Amino acid sequence: MSDTNVPTSEYRPQASEQPPTRTTSPREWVRLNLFNTWYNSLLTVVLAPLVGYVIYRALRFVFVTARWEIIEVNLTNFMVGTFPRGELWRVWGAIIILGLVIGLGLGVTSRASAETARARGVAAGTSWSLVARRAAPALLLLVALVVFVRTATPLLLLAAALAVAAGGYVAGRWIPPQHRRWMHIAVVAGLAGSYVVMTQFGGVNLAHWGGLMLTVFLAVGGIALAFPVGIIVALGRRSKLPAIRVVSMLYIELIRGLPLIALLYMGWLILPFLLPIGFPTPGRTWRALIVLLVFTAAYVAEIVRGGLQSIPKGQYEAAQALGLPAWKMMRLVILPQALRNVIPALVGQFISLFKDTSLVLLIALTDLLGVARRVTQQPEFLGQGLHAESLLFVSFIYWVGSYWMSRESQRMEQRLGLGER
Amino acid sequence: MRITKLLAPSLVVPALFLAACTDDGGGDNGEPALPDDEMVEGADEDAPGNEDGDDAGSSGGTLAEVRDRGVLNCGINGAVPGFGFVTPEGEYEGFDVEFCRVVAAAVLGDADAVDYTELTAETRFAALQAREIDVLIRNTTWTSSRDGSESGSFTTTTFYDGQGMMVRADDGFESLDDMDGTAICTLSGTTTELNLESAFSARGLDYEPLTFEDNDTLREAFLAERCDGWTSDKSQLAAFRAEWPEEEGGSEALTVLDETMSKEPLGPVTLDGDDEWHDAVHWAVIATIQAWEFGIDSSNVEDFLDADPEEDPEIARFLGIDDFDPGLGLDPDFAVNILEQVGNYQEIYERTVGPDTALGLEPGLNNLWTEGGLLYPPPYR
After folding, report:
1. What pTM does this model have?
2. Which residues in chain A (157-216) have CB-CB distances under 8 A to chain B?
3. Where are the domains of chain A?
4. Which of A71, A366, B76, B131 can pair with B84 through a Cys bridge, CB separation 3.0 to 4.6 Å?
5. Does one domain contain both B44 and B124?
6. CATH level 2 (architecture), domain A68-82+206-421
7. Which backbone phi and psi does B375 adopt, to 5 degrees?
8. Interface probe, candidates A377, A378, A413, A415, chain B, greatest B C-beta count within 10 A
């Protein structure tokens, strides 16, 4: 609806009207930024060798002294934990299905945004440098993993997954707009399909998932579930019905008042006692996911409430004046603006959830960090001080994930014009 | 607008999640992950036999529950050298893990029917009390308060450990009495710290404790000669000694003093109030020691089964040849399952922590009573 209201010819300054760009030589830049005052010069002289030395030592460790064999040997452990090795084809199957669905989704979205851009009269073309920049963290991670792969099979399967994803992208770009709504069904079917491949027909119980796979499952599952639940609770807290308002408020205040570790313990050890007799107890991985969901949703609800309160009353009144029913007013007018305003806080919460998944270590699940802790206790690596290598490797994966989320959120902010309009 | 588009599919996800959740509702208690038909059949066969042999309290007990489930839930430590760790192939191995397999072989007839749960020191008894696990075999020291207020029931000890002191051989310390005024490295928040204090104050010695969060930083400190002694359980000291870097003189450069500062009997634990299950675990462990005493191991158990039962009636009873049932709720031939699938105590010890492994532990107290050790199995009759 907003698309039609956007003026098709925006004012674009001529080249002669643009402010002159200032050019500084590197030499001048150094003088202006590092040696502009006597105390800055002093700081530079003191800190430059120190920083240089730290960087030198870090690089030397990573490329010379570190013994990465522990990662090479345990790469499968880091990826899937104690997942039975005879069933690894299921993981690859799920990765290929997800690759197809993600490729498809990206293809459809990219065509949709290209069409929107064209409709607005903005020059749109596939910007390969943008694609490269967006994919950089994922590629960085893949390179870091591929370095440690010692056999050809995973490389071939990885190539196959990437090829399938690329195929999905091409197919997604080809889908005409009127069939686009099928994409949602395809995404859900892909998720369901990969879950079935993993767990059904003699598959592997979730309790045996581990490593990066478990971390991603908990983080992505937690984010995907906590987001809608959090929005519903936020709306509930602002509801005019006292019962819903009180329940939402109690939920938020209770959950936010408890540490995540306490909640995880409760979900693990106390939840089974609270369920009615005969009710099947969910597996411990599900219990962990439920706890992460319940915990994060409370924070998301408060963030979203902040967004809702930032919307001026005029927007509500305008929507009502148009005759929109309450849910349409929320969906079409209020929520898009409210959520746009809270993207930075929301993504911050999701990044923190991603890292909080490592706490499941305490409730007998072995996530990525758990694997790092245990590989150094293997007889062949025992007592050799290899903690640094395994922790560095794991930290790198966490960092890439968090950085990627942060980058994507910044991109979304720019695209939606946060802070500009 | 665009965000609401994103929102639409994400609202579908909870529905999917709920479906998946009830679908997999069985979780730990449901269908075993190990696709093992034999195991389930075995459990079915056991059930009537169990009714015949032992009708006291077999309904609703852990033993019946484990058999129904077809999988033993065993609580272990996944990161302790030699006792429980994960191989690069993703398999659990180690001394404690072998005893999980022993119990599974005795109760279910399949040593592979084990679901391992990695527990931290803080959660191990909570997990036992919440029945998340059937048996806890996680280098747990048998103490009065754990037997009492933690509601654990300890079976026979599988490993006799003790706190020791490791020093550099060049420093010339022969016993704790030589170590007056030295710096001692230890882990913080453990009983070793307290034992160290009582051992030194009892001898009227002065020392400076240096505490660390984990063994690897402690090792670095000891390597940098920041302390003269390193105190921990002797099994752990032996592991670090065996892996001491060659450029530092290898394992010869270090000595573990003879003195033992504390007793650390480690063994399996079951939950209080289920004697039938406790007996089953107890005797599964005892069977590995008894087999060693009889000289039966995984390689020669077939010969013993073929031998004349009259020759040694005790062995015949032990292997269930004459269908002797002591009423433990276990199959008469449970010891054969243990021996064929896992082995006797000596085999387990030598495979996981013995002199030829990374830990390189001499049996010491973990030897048969006839050899000067503490392993003394009660008679099987």
Report:
1. 0.81
2. 184, 187-188, 191-192, 195, 199, 202, 204-208
3. 68-82+206-421, 84-203
4. B76
5. yes
6. Orthogonal Bundle (1.10)
7. -80, 110
8. A377
